[in-house]
Structures are given as structure tokens and as C-alpha cells.
Amino acid sequence: MRNRKTNLKTIWQRAKIRPILLLSAFQGITFSLLLFLPLTLMMNSFKSSFPYVENVEKIESSGTNESAVLTEIEPIENVTINGNNPTILTYKFDLNGQIIHSRFSVFDPIKIKNLKIGDVIPIKQLNGNSIVLGFEQYSFSMDFMKYIAGAAMLVGLVFFCLLFLRIKKEIDLYKMGKLKEGKIISINQNKGFTFSKFGSSMDVYYEYDVNGTKEIGKSRTNNFALTNNKTIGDTVRILVSEDGKNSCLYPELIAKMNHWKEN
Prior knowledge:
By secondary structure, the protein is α+β, with helices and mostly antiparallel strands. The chain has two domains: 8-32 and 146-257, CATH 2.40.50; 51-132, CATH 2.40.50. Helices cover 36% and strands 31% of the residues. The chain has seven helices and ten strands. The protein has helices at residues 8-16, 19-47, 56-62, 109-113, 143-176, 225-229, 252-257, and strands at 64-75, 87-95, 98-106, 120-126, 129-132, 178-190, 201-210, 213-221, 235-240, 247-249. Strands 3-2-1-4-5 form a five-stranded antiparallel sheet. Helix 1 crosses helix 5 and helix 2 runs antiparallel to helix 5.
């Protein structure tokens, strides 16, 4: 049973002759990570600057109305929206004889102008957690950046999957393919990137016999020595799957480096 040896270098060699897929996958995944990680740190920094009340909807529906005394009005200096800052309202209220101090983040510049320290404001509380009535809670959000990072990651993963599937097919042939001969019918050059030889390769088209039926195969290689020794009509060694549907060129250099047995 054939089980030829391959390694990570072999996989990299097969990946780099598909530069568009490789770089698209790398750029998509890298961009999303470079965007997401600093974004997460920045959001955590912003969120630590102001309070956030969980379960606002539950407090609105099940909480009890109370009156509170406004003790501080503090703008959030590191966040500016259209020239205005969100505000932290600090207040205290009596809950069963105990004074509770709470903070609530809002963004409503017009209403805030009408408030002053010492004002009695309406609140709603549930189990000690409270919200200020008449104001929506302000929470720092960069969801649109998350969507951009997510979209970039998705694009990168799609290209990665396409690259993986193409490489896997070849690696499977390297490991288990039957060694046969094919006849070259066409050779097309792929120049790669304009200012670099990275990605340069050739697409070799050939025909081979499968149980008396002629099949057409295509394989990409960066072994440019092939064109020095072979031309259209010449035979070339190939690896063919058991069902004969998939094939690729026999990788002479990889075979020698990994000490393959020619079977």
C-alpha cells in the first residue's frame, strides 16, 4: 500500500504557486485579527470609563419607581460625539432605610443642560440596580468595526478553504496516487506578481489513459526545468487517483527529497 512521505515544506511549496488564494487568505485573516484585537482592548478601556447597567429591560418592566438625589454630573472626556460628551449621572436613593449610591451613563446633551446637582430625579430600581427614567442608557459600541473585521475574516477563511481543498487533493495524490505516464498537450506560463517571482508557475495539460479511456488532466508546477526537457507531445510522469478522476504531475524534486519509492 502506497503512503509516500510529505511534510510542511511540501504543503508550503504547493501553496505558494497559488499566490492569489494564499495572499487573499492571509490578508483577510490577518487584517481581521489586527483590527479585532486592538478594537477589543480599546472597547474594554472605554467601557471601564463609565458604568453599565445589565438587564435594563427587566428593570423597566419589573422595577419599582423611586426618587433619587443627583449628586454629580460628570462628562466622559475620552468619548466625543458631534462635539458633545456622554455623561455619567451619579445619584443616591433610599432603599429600605439604606442609602444606595448609583451611576448611570447617558447621552442627551439637551436634557443634561437642564439638570443640576441636588435635583430630585425619577429612577426605577430592581434588587438595588437602577436606571434613570427619561434617559436611555449610553453604551460605547463599535459594532460596525466588528462587522468589518468579521467580513474580512469570512473572506479570508473562504480563500483559505479553497486553497486547502486544492492542496489537499494534491497531497492525497502525492501520498497514495498511482504512478503513470501522460502525454503533454499544452503548457501555459503563470507570471506571478509583477515585481517579484513569487507565485510564478506553469499549468501543464496532459492526457492519460484510464481503463482504455482518455482523460485530460491539469497540474500546476514551479519546476521550470520541465520546459527545458519536455515539449508538447512528450510523455511526463503523473500521479493518478484510484478512480482515475484526479491527477497531478509527479513532483520529481519532492520525491527525491522525501526518498519516495517509485511505485
